Amino acid sequence: MSSNILFLPFRKSHSLVLSDAIRQYISGKYDQHPDMFKQDLEVIDSLRREAINVREPHVSGLKKIAAYAAQLVWMGGKFPIDIGADFTWFTALGYNTKRPITQDNLKFELCNVLFNLAALYSQLAVSVNFSSPDGLKSAANYFCLAAGVISHMKDKVVPELRTAPVEDMDIATLESLQELLLAQGQECFWQKAVMDGYKDSSIAKLAARVSDLYSTAGDWAVQSEAISSEWIHHMTAKHHHFAAAAQYRQACDCLEKRKYGEEVARLRDSMLCVNEALKESRYVNKTVLGDLNGLKNKVSEDLKRAEKDNDLIYLNPVPPKSELKTLERAGMVVARVPPDVSSPLDHLGDNAMFGAPLFAKLVPFAVHLAASIYEERRDRLVSTQLTAPLSALTASIHSTLSALSLPGSLQALEKPLGIPPALLAHAEELRQSDALARLDRSFADTAKLKATDTATFASGRD
Prior knowledge:
- The protein has a single domain (about 10-345), classed as Alpha Horseshoe (Serine Threonine Protein Phosphatase 5, Tetratricopeptide repeat).
- It is about 65% helix and about 0% strand.
- The chain is built from 15 helices and 3 strands.
- The protein has a 3-stranded antiparallel β-sheet with strand order 1-2-3, covered by helices on one side.
- The radius of gyration is 45 Å and the shape is elongated.
- The mean pLDDT is about 90.
């Protein structure tokens, strides 16, 4: 591996039987039996096991990680984000790499898997042969793909976490890593141009763009809690190094075009940039430091020669730095999201690269959720539109009957079958007091009194 190039380390995870959580969720939340998906449950465990055990920079690991990531995206349409599985991961950057982070979150799992995919691309980049043009071209391609994966995480996955991202997945960290990977990809094109003998003006444009990218990466890195100070010093040194290299190459172009005064000005600026880079000498590795000292020696020798020739022979005015034309940039890299990451579902199918989608026969979570919402709204509608008004009307009727002193009628309404209890009680009281016999005697006495009164009335009339 090239020691003047940085790569992303892998994130590590604990083993997890994901199928247990999925089985339990299906059993508790769906009408379908988990045994219908026995094979799918075995496959998802196998995919995760293979993905988290990728530890070497080999192209075979790309498919293992991407296949599991694609199935996680597909499962997001079948299950909720909190499926009941405790995904445990260790951060790859920063000062807390030994502290585990556990979340019940499918998107958190996807973020970690994609980070490892970006890490694998970056490690593949630094493992190629940097001494050949084809190797440099391949490395640049891997760096662009790694940056693309980081970009996809930042724009598409992290916003869906529903929780604050962990410290090495916040926006500042991901932005810094993306720019760093692009800077190193651009650096590969610069090195290839040097190797292929491109014109100095073209090499200067490439170097200027490398410097810009390292500068942006460093600006984001100082806002991150996860990017180490060692990496920040590396980015700072690289920024000034390539600013110096760009000015040096432009000075060489000036010499060729007989612009001797501008040549001196640009060589002086190049020396200033080299000296700025060397301020980081205590913190960068020996390879980076060796590159800086080599450039400094070259610039110093050319500057002495240029100043001497101009002072003695050409006598061209040396313009101040403020009057130097800003160098043009030649950008050769962009963050390219791999197709199997940007459109993972297109790679799932019976004859597709990642195989058939798992749990295809399971009712989608969105449908299950919609059914639950329908039932809830139906029950609320019945309660508010029917049950509540009916209860209010029943209470009003009871109140009216009570106001009319109709307890018997009220009881009859409440218990419409049989004679009201109050009426039965009153009849029992009458029976116990021999009311019928007394009533018959009253009728007989009344008849006797009537006969007596009639006779008395008749005699009086006569």
